């Protein structure tokens, strides 16, 4: 009962100013509104980004994603940055609906602005941003109007490395390596075998490139133009886009039907 | 101060630029029983004098835990203090829930001060009649703040509010330079000795004071009577050499070598309204 009253209050709140106060509920005589905003619910995504893969390494976090934005099965946009720095300490990577990602960036922009305006020596670190995002995603899911993204949030603050993930239904956790979408199926198994606590920067990049290469071969929405982002105590940097070397002369690719005459 | 024609409304300025109602609210703080706060680099100690209406009743609670890393001591209208403590707890828990992270005390006191300011600018409200000593931690270490009914807040190394707090302040003024590097134990001892200053001759017993501690590695909690009494015992036996001359206080300080047989004599606040403790 109290959840509905509280949701009621949330709905009243202006979407531009996303109030994140969870008041101790009090009876206020409001009935529960119908979901009459049906036309406002997210039903399916339109322009989507594919996997993001991220790992902790010796000095911080490494995150990789390609720059593609698919419109259904068409690879329509090939220059979308799906990883953005948040403040001094964090980096957000997203897969899923690109417009929702941009909306999330707006929320975080406002959040970090207010944090900076305090100007008091305290700052929101990756853990705080991750939890804020979890609240946002979960609340939207409760209203049947999700932000259609899976987010990866990483960063380093005061020497502590942080890497977490939030899905569009509000599932949230931290780990040493995370991936979204197809990355979960293709990249995580590689990382489970080969990830170590003390990877150097070069080793980390090589490992990520290995994962991204597999995704490039096997995920049809992946494109061969990726960025790798590095987060350390000093700050956050996103690399320039580059391509991976691929090899298509595997015997199985050169003559794919050799074992099954008549197929194609 | 005396009554004048500008003091009826909180929204009326005097010709000299004063808001008398706000100043009267600050008077209410001075009538409450003393509360003291001190801090070091890593710890904050809040202590207060326990006052009971009569021998039959228990004493009012003046120190509240806001969160593991924030505590508050109040002086003045305890009802107002309780309401504000609840507000502080609410703010703290909301922040923790959203960010999984403790609310920096510096931000909490600004919220509190802004809330108090509202009451100084609405004709249908009155200022909160309570002063709050807020001790807490944030990224830059331990902090002690004083929030005033006027909506101002100040940061302190050590401070005392309430009745006869000037005696405590004088004691603290002499010693404050050493507090930053003080150990936890020394800080507690200094707090209890400052409390003693406000008692003006009454024997210091653990039943008369409440002491709370919080630190970088220590959640906010109240000290139990035994621990307080142990600290008192370390200095109560030694006769005091220094004479404390509180501002405008003519009473000489009685020798403090009592062996605990002193009675809690009637305190000099006959004019305290029952709602103020």
From TrEMBL, chain A:
Keywords: Cytoplasm, Nucleus, Proteasome. It is found in: Cytoplasm; Nucleus. It comes from the Eukaryota. CDD domains: proteasome_beta_type_4 (cd03760). GO terms for biological process: proteolysis involved in protein catabolic process. One of its GO terms (cellular component) is nucleus. Belongs to the peptidase T1B family. Component of the 20S core complex of the 26S proteasome. The 26S proteasome is composed of a core protease (CP), known as the 20S proteasome, capped at one or both ends by the 19S regulatory particle (RP/PA700). The 20S proteasome core is composed of 28 subunits that are arranged in four stacked rings, resulting in a barrel-shaped structure. The two end rings are each formed by seven alpha subunits, and the two central rings are each formed by seven beta subunits. The catalytic chamber with the active sites is on the inside of the barrel. Non-catalytic component of the proteasome. This is Proteasome subunit beta. It comes from Arabidopsis suecica (Swedish thale-cress).
TrEMBL record, chain B:
This is Proteasome subunit alpha type. Component of the 20S core complex of the 26S proteasome. The 26S proteasome is composed of a core protease (CP), known as the 20S proteasome, capped at one or both ends by the 19S regulatory particle (RP/PA700). The 20S proteasome core is composed of 28 subunits that are arranged in four stacked rings, resulting in a barrel-shaped structure. The two end rings are each formed by seven alpha subunits, and the two central rings are each formed by seven beta subunits. The catalytic chamber with the active sites is on the inside of the barrel. The proteasome is a multicatalytic proteinase complex which is characterized by its ability to cleave peptides with Arg, Phe, Tyr, Leu, and Glu adjacent to the leaving group at neutral or slightly basic pH. It comes from the Eukaryota. It is found in: Cytoplasm; Nucleus. Keywords: Cytoplasm, Nucleus, Proteasome. CDD domains: proteasome_alpha_type_1. Residues 239-252 have a biased composition (Acidic residues). SMART domains: Proteasome_A_N. One of its GO terms (biological process) is ubiquitin-dependent protein catabolic process. Residues 6-28 form the Proteasome alpha-type subunits domain. It comes from Arabidopsis suecica (Swedish thale-cress). One of its GO terms (cellular component) is cytoplasm. InterPro entries: Proteasome_alpha, Proteasome_alpha-type, Proteasome_alpha1, Proteasome_asu_N, Proteasome_sua/b. It holds the Pfam family Proteasome_A_N. Belongs to the peptidase T1A family. The keyword RNA-binding does not apply. Residues 259-268 have a biased composition (Gly residues). Coiled coil: none annotated. Residues 237-277 are annotated as: Disordered.
């Amino acid at each position: 009962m109290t959840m509905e009253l509280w949701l009621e209050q949330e709905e009243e709140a202006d979407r531009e100013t996303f109030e994140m106060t969870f008041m101790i509920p009090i009876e206020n005589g409001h009935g529960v509104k119908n979901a009459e905003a049906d036309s406002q619910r997210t039903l399916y995504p339109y322009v989507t980004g594919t996997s993001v893969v991220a790992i902790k390494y010796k000095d911080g976090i490494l995150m990789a994603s390609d720059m593609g934005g698919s419109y259904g099965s068409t690879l329509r946009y090939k220059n979308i940055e799906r990883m953005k720095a948040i403040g001094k300490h964090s980096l957000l990577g997203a897969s899923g609906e690109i417009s929702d990602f941009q909306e999330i960036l707006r929320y975080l922009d406002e959040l970090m602005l207010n944090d900076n305006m305090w100007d008091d020596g305290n700052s929101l670190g990756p853990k705080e941003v991750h939890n804020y995002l979890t609240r946002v995603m979960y609340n939207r899911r409760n209203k049947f109007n999700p932000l259609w993204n899976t987010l990866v949030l990483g960063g380093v603050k005061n020497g502590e490395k942080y890497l977490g993930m939030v899905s569009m239904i509000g599932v949230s956790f931290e780990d040493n390596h995370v991936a979204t979408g197809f990355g979960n199926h293709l990249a995580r198994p590689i990382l489970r075998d080969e990830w170590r606590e003390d990877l150097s920067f070069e080793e980390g990049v090589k490992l990520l490139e290995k994962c991204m290469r597999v995704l490039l071969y096997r995920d049809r929405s992946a494109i061969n133009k990726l960025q790798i982002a590095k987060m350390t105590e000093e700050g956050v940097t996103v690399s320039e886009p580059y391509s991976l070397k691929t090899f298509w002369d595997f015997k199985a690719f050169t003559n794919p039907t050799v074992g099954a005459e008549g197929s194609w | 101060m005396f009554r004048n024609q500008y003091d009826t409304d909180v929204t009326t300025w005097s010709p000299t630029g004063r808001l008398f109602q706000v100043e009267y609210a600050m008077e209410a703080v001075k009538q409450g029983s003393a509360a003291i706060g001190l801090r070091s680099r890593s710890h904050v100690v809040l202590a207060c004098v326990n006052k009971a209406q009569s021998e039959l009743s228990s004493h009012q609670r003046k120190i509240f835990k806001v969160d593991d890393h924030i505590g508050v001591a109040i002086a003045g209208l305890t009802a107002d203090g309780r309401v504000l403590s609840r507000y502080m707890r609410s703010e703290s828990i909301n922040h923790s829930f959203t960010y999984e992270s403790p609310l920096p005390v510096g931000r909490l006191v600004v919220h509190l001060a802004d809330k108090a300011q509202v009451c100084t600018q609405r004709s249908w409200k009155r200022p909160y009649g309570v002063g709050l000593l807020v001790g807490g931690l944030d990224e830059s270490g331990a902090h002690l703040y004083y929030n005033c009914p006027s909506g101002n807040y100040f940061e302190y190394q050590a401070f005392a509010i309430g009745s006869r707090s000037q005696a405590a302040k004088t004691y603290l003024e002499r010693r404050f330079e050493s507090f930053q590097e003080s150990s936890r134990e020394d800080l507690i001892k200094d707090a209890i000795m400052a409390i003693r200053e406000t008692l003006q001759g009454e024997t210091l017993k653990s039943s008369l004071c409440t002491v709370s501690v919080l630190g970088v590695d220590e959640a906010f909690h109240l000290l139990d009577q035994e621990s307080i009494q142990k600290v008192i015992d370390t200095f109560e036996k030694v006769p005091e050499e220094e004479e404390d001359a509180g501002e405008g206080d003519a009473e000489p300080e009685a020798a403090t070598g009592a062996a605990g047989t002193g009675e809690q004599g009637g305190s000099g606040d006959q004019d305290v309204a029952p709602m103020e403790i």
